Amino acid sequence: MNEMWILANVEGNETSLGSIESETANKETETQSSTKVPSDPNANAAKSQPRGGFDTQQLLFFGLIFVVMYILLFRWPRKKQQDHKRMVQSLEKNDRVRTIGGIIGTVVDIKDDEITLKIDESNNTKIKVITSAIGKNLSKDKS
What we know:
Oligomer: single chain
Helix content: 25-40%
Strand content: 25-35%
Number of strands: 7
Shape: rod-shaped
């Protein structure tokens, strides 16, 4: 790596026309030089031609897209379902709940897939809803 081959003709030097010269490269000449001489004469041609196959960056990009799609399409809804299931299983009598339709009531009775809500104290009005209709437990969630 101590030799640098110069393929260009130096101006004013007519005797070196067509000859290739070898110079010993030291650190001073490398830092002062403003032009770079490629080590391979076909290097520029290879850079301009498109490469075939996958690049590592492309593979990482597609992997990142796959991870984001997995989180958005599978993980997030499953987590919300599990949270809702835990909330419904933790319901007890006298808990205030809000349905997904906006009805606020107090839990009176809980059966397998059916919850009885008391929605009016004065008339003793009750409704039965399925567990998936419960949107929020107002007794436990103070937000």
